Amino acid sequence: MTLTVNLDEPGYTSSFLADQHAGQLARLRTLERVFDPLSQEVFDQLVLADKPAILDLGAGAGSLAGWLSQRYPQASVTATDIDTRFLTDILGIRVLTHNAATDDFPVASFDVVHARALLCHLGEREDLLTRAITWLRPGGWLVIEDVSLQPSLSAANPLFRKVAQAGITLLEQTVGSDMLWAATLPDRLRDRGLANLGHRTLEGRIGDNSPADTFWAATTAQAGPALLKRGLLEQDDLDGMTRLRADPAFTAAALTLVSAWGQVV
Question: Which SS3 state, helix, strand or coil, does residue 219 take?
Answer without folding.
Answer: helix
